[in-house]
Amino acid sequence: MTMRVTFELQPEDLKHFRLIMREARDAAKSLTADEILSAANNLLLEIEDAKVPHFIEERLKRLRTLIGMVEDDEWSLPQEETARVLNALAYFAEPEDLIPDHIPGLGFLDDAIMIELVARELRHEIEAYDDFVEWRTASDKRFRIGKDPAARDKRVGSKREKLLERVERRKQKDEEAKAKGKAPELF
Question: Which of 75, 85, 132, 187 could form a disulfide with 117 if both were Cys (CB 3.0 to 4.6 A apart)?
């Protein structure tokens, strides 16, 4: 039997999480991209070793996507977008959690909440990356990997550019809606 538990974050709660994220970003300014990615990957390893509730595990899967967006050489995010993702991952480089990870059942709850919040902020980028990975897998099956590497690189580059253009269009549309007061601040 499953049970559904929901909660709402009020504007004051979001303000609190924004403050925590700002503090984590400030603390992570002295870290390299590799150090931030390593910390995020270490969190994933901790989760694999720990028995975490399904609702937390589901949110933490998005962490893999965020890491992949930076580590995937073929995705090759523009520098500004890479910085946005690394800023989102900065929280996971902070050794002090709101809720210590060793607390059974709840230790990763703050991590899951933070991932949910940054995933909403980066939703267009995440959707584009997920589409890219899915397309690349299907394309590689269809065109047999290695058959013509130059043609493959051209297809991959073209698809990536189209998806990144889509991200920019969607972000622009969000900004316009926000300016008109028709879109809530996400995070």
Answer: 187
Nearest to 185 by CA among 120, 110, 119: 120
CA angle, corner 186, sides to 180 and 187, nearest 5?
A: 130
pLDDT tens-digit map of 149-182: 888 899 999 999 999 999 999 999 998 888 887 7
Non-local CB neighbours of 122 within 8 Å, separated by 6+ positions: 66, 84, 85, 88
Match 């991590």 to its residue by tokens. 111
From CA 173, how far away is CA 124, in angstroms rounded?
Answer: 11
Q: What tokens were used for 82?
A: 């890479």
Residue 95 in tokens: 């050794």
Q: Are 179 and 159 in contact (CB under 8 A)?
A: no
Cα(61)–Cα(74) distance, integer angstroms: 21
* CA distance linking residue 153 with residue 34, whole number of Å: 25
The model's pTM is: 0.84
119 and 186 in contact (C-beta within 8 Å)? Answer: no
- 32-58 pLDDT per residue, tens: 999 999 989 988 887 777 777 777 778
CA dist., res. 60 & res. 162, Å (int): 28
Amino acid identity for residue 186 in this structure:
L
Amino acid identity for residue 27 in this structure: A
